Amino acid sequence: MDSEKQTQRTAAEAGWHVSRYNLSAPIPGGNSVAIANLYKGSCAPYSSLELYLMSVLDEISEDHPIIVRLAKRGVIVNFDELAALQTLSRGSATGFRDVGLTICPTLGCNFDCPYCFENHFAGRMSEEVQDDIVKLADRMLEASAARKLSITWFGGEPLLAPDIIESLSKRLMELAEIHNAGYRAGIITNGYNLTPDIARMLGECKVEYAQITLDGVREAHNATRHLAGGGPTFDRIVENLRAPLPFHVSIRHNVHEGNRDQMEPLKALVDQLAEETGNSISYYPAPVAASTVADERGKQVGLLCDDNGADVGITQDADRFNGARGLYCGAQNMWVVGIDDKGNLQKCWEAVDKPELSFGTAHDWDPLNPLETASNLDNLTQYINLANPVPDDECRDCVWLPVCAGGCPYKRLYEERKCVPYKDTPEAYVLALFAKIAQQKAAKEAAEARKKQEQEQA
Ligand code: SF4
Ligand code: SF4
Fold first, then answer.
1. Which of 21, 229, 231, 449 is least enclosed by beta carbons within 10 angstroms?
2. What's this model's pTM, rounded to 2 decimal places?
């Protein structure tokens, strides 16, 4: 009797409603509409009939077959998505699959890029600080029981101190083994000192990826990414990329008004390098963002994209569209820490050059007692507490919240809220996602067809 009664409920009576995180755009040249669901991470075409059924959930039965189809893609839901996001954020802020350390062996740099957010100080990490880092990593692995130690070499320019990277890597790799944890590393470098010997050493130190910035092809790159005191850098970096590289290299293109036309040629160059060398190299564009340091140095003006980088941001984010995330970045997780060359701990790597924003030291901070051993508690808690942007009025009502997670916490704290650059162009975003997903589907189908053909021929 009860089950009979249940099947008579409408979908709306059963709790189904249209997701608050749907964005839609008419598909050019067709009769259907693309809907992206930002919570679930889906993007698919919908016919007029499907759209109609979605609009009459208070009339159709909860057993209508369309319900399962729409629910699978997250475009209709029967739960409170905002509450789910809140729980996701809280879990992500304290979860500890990895212990992540961003280590700066030096804050010195051999380049002088006009948009750089860092003040550069000469100097190298001392042996005492290196000892403190190993002990800190030990405490963090012990306290968290994390399964992986994840290191990012950062600076300044970390390859000005390759000896520190080599010796500290060996100690940290041994430590991970003692804790029965995995180990992986990456490096953010300008690529100038990435000679074949250094690349080999990094490979032995389990560096799995490197991020290198090129601002365009030769002249365009040299115009902004030049040596401190002047001098081109492009040819030497490209020469380094031609040698065998035992890790993946991601070429970051800082896009600004002066080099926006370089996106195509630079991507072509990267593809060509990958093909000719067999190295794993990929390209991604990133809009240059405002930075206090660069502003103070008076060099930023005129470099920002005129429309705040909406199209570049769409290209960048369509590639990594994967549904709701709990955090904007690792700075909001308790087990991710940045360490400058003096052993000061920071939540955000944009702050590694600002000791006044440090929350403690590698020597003293104890993750088993994180609040008592922090020397500046606010510098720790304000990042962690921003992991949950839901209390923020504007974010709470914002359709972009699942993918934006409230934006960069450093900018919120010290500059201004940094919304997704394509906030006002949702249709362009949806269509870019739609094209991307169609492309991936076509590539998958082609690969499957090839495999089938090979099996038939065998
Ligand atoms: S807080 Fe912002 S600047 Fe700092 S690491 Fe996170 S995203 Fe980067
Ligand atoms: S930072 Fe801006 S785009 Fe992001 S969720 Fe908040 S209001 Fe939306």
1. 229
2. 0.82
